[in-house]
């Protein structure tokens, strides 16, 4: 298990800060909260947390070593992720207005879609690699990787949930189609800006 309680607490702080700060996931969850409400965004939020937990397990149990051995695979993944993020930005920017019954004419991201997105999310890769390389003791490694992944999921879910609730709280303020359109365009722009670390910052596996 962990070498010390202090190390575990340091990891919890890392998990909280990295989960609650802005990034592709939180930008999309905020937009989803506005366009679809908190209840319809729950599958999206669960997909983020559980998908990321599986990603941490994958990195911890050797996927990171595969990318170190063949960095071209990670390069391909990065640009696939960039293309998908641009597609998601387009979908957010062109989301329809909230209808009379309080729902958007578009559809929220599914659980499986959100879980799969983690594998092309640049911030998720940085978080997963940082968790495994910095906070996972070598002694009892397998158990520690499982603990790291589980704790990250437990910290991540309420953290991303804050963004969902904030978006849901903004729904009443954005009933005006013009303001909603401006909000969605802003979210799309922020999602595109989040491509910066993916395209211009050195790969974690180089």
UniProtKB/TrEMBL annotation:
GO molecular function, one term: amino acid transmembrane transporter activity
Membrane topology summary: Multi-pass membrane protein
Regions crossing the membrane: 46-64, 71-90, 141-167, 179-199
Gene Ontology cellular-component terms listed: plasma membrane
GO BP terms: cysteine export across plasma membrane
Broad class of the protein's primary localization: membrane
Keywords assigned by UniProt, alphabetized: Cell membrane, Membrane, Transmembrane, Transmembrane helix
Domain of life: Bacteria
Keyword Endoplasmic reticulum: no
Record's subcellular location: Cell membrane
The name this protein goes by in its record: Lysine transporter LysE
Organism annotation: Pseudomonas putida (Arthrobacter siderocapsulatus)
Lineage: Bacteria, Pseudomonadati, Pseudomonadota, Gammaproteobacteria, Pseudomonadales
